[in-house]
Design a protein that fits this description.
By secondary structure, this protein is α/β, with parallel strands linked by helices.
Length: 660
């Protein structure tokens, strides 16, 4: 049996898979198949018995719409069953419409939103370099492969990540560009004339230009990419959409739809297949692609023996546990903060970050060109930048690339062994948001540090003053959004964040100073933050007013309550809504019970969403407008967020209720 006949049989399998589901993408899968088949058959290092083997080569299908191609490969190597292909795109199956890493064995990254797979592959290559520098080539020494499409390279996130890949000289990254020049709406010439080869050469990549259906050229290009260890490699494979189709070859109509039954039958006949057979693969095709599996098992066995031998040494065992075990925080020397001092939570975070980094060696990350503002500069200075000449650096200097930063961090987390974070201003979480959403979907414990969290940013004006962003982040499922009130809450939030294993976090921090809680409150705070919300101030008498607040507005609530000296005021701090609503009902009822008090929400952002705390008759104080360019205190007065204004509004509301 020839290689071409094996590939033709897989084309039949792909066409049948998409046709049975009556949904999916056929054309790109057929145009990319030659490369994917040869990569899996002849080059990819994997464990036939364990998709999670640490030192496997990573393969990221950034063109996630070609999922039928990936699932066919995973079936061929033994990770999936035929029933999985038969259930393509059906409820409860392991073969979702676009690949999902936490769902399907052998899927390295959840892709579909184009461009992010490229960035996640860059992150995996970064992680490989970092871990190889720390654990040695005997433990970590693998390649990262990525398959991308025309659409991927139209997304700026892919280009931003690729620029960093060239800058960091990620020589073990090989990307294949399936250049079929067709997308859903038609020919790419309608929308793009970029000289991709020149762009990537400018990024510092090795660029190889080949016929993507020429098997010899593909094999030679992969080998050349493997041999080039100083630069990442882009293989531009010029291909034909729906390659091999009987009458629809090259058609955009094949991109996002199954082929018609008559086209499938005619194509099978053209390819030398039996049109009456469906989901058919000959034993020879399976044997061909699995021809290296004995050799691969030997490779894995040798690796396991090396690691077992290394594990006899105490130093290696401790290092391994530090990278692949839970974070050990019991030895952290937490920074001290003077009670009552005005400390911005971003500055408190910087000190906490430096403290935990000393005992959590796999904590890596950086800032999108905002190190001084995000207070990550101390971390960067202490541990150095990751670079082409300093692979053991832990600081990732991302430049002005929020979205690539977020997606690369997702790739680092997907690789395993490292705990990544990325920092920027909260208002720029809009730029990072698609990657935050995708990490929540993939259950990745990645941290976004988001400083300058309200209009109190001040003079930079409404372009830099977040208003809707806090609530927008809270709307993402499986994302923990922390907004600490002051330094001690910030520490407690970081402790919780570092204990997460399958949930990402966003840590929202102030630019302006806020008073540090008195010592007598510290134990209450540390216990309360774990629950996501707690009573910070409880009056001796039944409360007449209950204020629910977060972040810097806790100190505002405290100051306002002092002005309401004739009233009994309860203050509830809610640093993490998501954790609070996961508490037992009895605990939540104790915080939210209708005790007859006036319920008030206080947060320097949009008021939408606070009704679940204050009910229909409560008072919501916030910022349902854009800010303005002015010093923070002046702007606070403009929008009604001074202690006097808050106290006055509460008093007037109570007076109105009495009259009513």
């Amino acid at each position: 049996m020839t290689t071409q006949h094996a590939i033709n049989e897989i084309k039949g399998l792909i066409m049948d898979t998409v046709r049975k589901a009556n949904s999916g993408h056929t054309g790109g899968a057929l145009s990319s198949l030659d490369f994917a088949y040869l990569l899996y058959r002849d080059h990819l290092a994997y464990d036939p018995d364990d998709p999670e083997w640490l030192n496997r080569d990573r393969f990221v299908l950034s063109a996630g719409h070609e999922s039928a191609l990936l699932y066919s490969m995973l079936y061929l190597i033994g990770y999936l069953e035929m029933d999985d292909l038969l259930q393509f795109r059906q409820l409860g199956s392991r073969t979702a419409g676009h690949p999902e890493a936490h769902l399907t064995p052998g899927v390295e990254a959840t892709t579909g939103p184009l461009g992010q797979g490229v960035a996640m592959a860059v992150g995996m290559a970064v992680a490989e370099e970092m871990l190889r520098a720390r654990l040695g080539t005997e433990v970590v020494d693998h390649a990262t492969y990525c398959l991308c499409s025309d659409g991927d390279l139209q997304e700026p996130v892919a280009l931003g990540a690729s620029s960093l890949a060239g800058h960091w000289r990620l020589g073990r990254l090989v990307m294949y560009y399936d250049c079929n020049q067709v997308q859903i709406s038609g020919a790419t010439s309608r929308v793009d004339s970029t000289a991709i080869d020149q762009v990537f050469k400018g990024f510092g990549w090795q660029v190889l230009d080949i016929d993507g259906h020429d098997h010899t050229a593909i094999e030679e290009a992969i080998a050349e990419g493997q041999a080039e260890v100083e630069r990442p490699t882009l293989i531009i494979g010029h291909t034909i959409m729906a390659h091999g189709a009987a009458t629809m070859e090259g058609s955009a109509d094949t991109h996002g739809a199954p082929l018609p039954p008559e086209e499938i039958a005619a194509t099978k006949t053209k390819l030398g297949l039996d049109p009456g057979k469906f989901f058919h693969l000959s034993p020879e095709t399976l044997a061909d692609i699995q021809s290296r599996q004995k050799e691969l098992r030997q490779l894995v066995g040798e690796w396991q023996r090396r690691v077992k031998e290394l594990g006899k040494g105490k130093e290696f065992r401790e290092r391994w546990e530090a990278f692949f075990g839970p974070a050990q925080l019991d030895t952290v020397s937490w920074p001290e903060f003077e009670p009552g001092a005005g400390v911005a939570t971003r500055k408190a975070f910087g000190k906490v970050l430096e403290a935990v980094a000393e005992v959590v060696p796999n904590l890596v990350g950086g800032s999108a060109d905002l190190e001084p503002s995000n207070n990550t500069a101390g971390f960067a200075k202490a541990y150095g930048d990751f670079s082409a000449t300093h692979r053991s650096g832990r600081s990732l200097s991302y430049g002005v690339r929020e979205f690539p930063m977020g997606a690369i961090n997702n790739g680092i987390a997907l690789h395993g062994g490292l705990r990544p974070f990325g920092a920027t201003f909260l208002v720029f979480s809009d730029y990072e948001r698609p990657s935050i959403r995708l990490r929540a979907l993939q259950e990745l414990p990645v941290l976004s540090v988001l400083t300058h969290d309200s209009i109190f940013v001040g003079e930079d004006g409404p372009t830099h003053q977040p208003t809707e962003h806090i609530m927008a982040l809270r709307s993402i499922p499986n994302l923990l959004v922390f907004r600490p009130a002051e330094a001690i809450e910030t520490q407690a939030c970081m402790e919780l964040i570092l204990q997460q294993t399958n949930r990402p976090s966003a840590l929202l921090l102030t630019r302006q100073g806020v008073p540090v809680f008195p010592v007598e409150l510290h134990s209450v705070v540390l216990e309360g933050v774990v629950r996501g919300g707690y009573i910070l101030k409880d009056p001796d008498d039944p409360p007449q007013v209950t204020i629910f607040a977060t972040g810097s507005e806790i100190s505002l609530a405290m100051a306002a309550s002092e002005l309401l000296h004739d009233l009994s005021v309860r203050i509830v701090s809610l640093p993490c809504w998501e954790l609070f609503f996961e508490q037992p009902e009895a605990y939540r009822r104790g915080i939210l019970a209708d005790d007859g008090s006036l319920r008030i929400s206080l947060e320097a952002g949009v008021t939408q969403g606070w009704g679940q705390f204050i009910g229909l008759n409560g008072l919501s104080i916030g910022v349902d407008r854009f800010g303005a360019s002015a010093p923070g205190k002046e702007l606070g007065a403009k929008v009604g967020l001074t202690p006097e204004q808050v106290a006055d509004r509460i008093q007037r509301t109570l007076d109105t209720m009495k009259r009513g």
